[in-house]
Specification:
This protein is an alpha/beta fold. It has ten helices and twelve strands. Helix 6 runs antiparallel to helix 7.
Amino acid sequence: MSSRRPPRRPGAPRRAERPMRRAEPARRTEPTPRRAEPARPAEPARPAEPARPAEPTARPAEPTARRAAPSTGRSEAPVRPMAARAAAPASVRTPASPAARTPASPEAAPEGPRRVVPAADRFRSLVTPRPWLRRRRTILAVSAGLLVLVLAAVGVLLYAPAFRVADVEIAGTGYVDAQAVRRAAEPALGTSILRVPSGRITAEAEAIPGVASASVERTWPDGLRVTVRERTPIATVATADGGTAVVDAEGEQLPPEAAEGATLVPLTVATGSKDPEGATDAMLEVLAELPADLRGSTSAISASSRSDVTLTVAVGEGQKTVVWGDAQDAELKAQVVAALLGQPGTVIDVSSPVAPVTR
């Protein structure tokens, strides 16, 4: 068996060599005792090699354990002693420092991990059919088409000659002058039926004497209808010039034509009244709240103030005077009067309906 060691790799640290002791041949056993051999002197230890300076470029640390060489029949290299291991260069025993692993320049710095996007998934999403996208496009297209149609229809209604007002119809007039109502609607002639000033026409029609309310309707394609509701006349009032005026329950003066065919009660304000307007308002309020049968038999009403209204009621062939008082408790007073009209006497005082007086 050869004691030759394998060659040392270049750059590897030298190991402390130690001479190998050769095996002595076996001696024959003799009956006589062997002579003791003198002890060999200890060999002086070889000084440790100085540590080599660190190389400028750090080399990767070699693995501590060597790969086991296949058995070739040769003797293996002896293991280095602990003193020789401690004397090994520091550049070999310790791994490279972080500063040594840092690249010298930014260009030499390794790039970080890159995110790989699978192209197959991206292209598959582009070619995959999307039903909801088609539905959304259809809805948007239909909505845009409807919007265009609506705008076109509005444009036709605003500017087409076929939709301009050419006829005005007046309805609901009796004693009110229909021509006056027509004149209130004339500004709408020739304008688009969508641009008819209904509010202005209504206000002008209601300002006509005898009109309680008015409404404006469009009759397609080029017509307009104005409907009025007239006030109901209930009485006549003496005016300052000695004449009479027809009034309704609210005291509004009506045209003289309103008296034709109507049963009106004359209202008289007593001479020397300090509040003629208040007296007139009280008489109109009492007349408006009278039951229909009692109103039909009332021939006249007079007052000097708000609290002394007096009625003249026809009973059979004669008449009775009813002292009504103010306009409060009209329903109760009417019931008391209806119950006392058949009693003897010519005067019925219901100014206090809970304690009526006849005389």
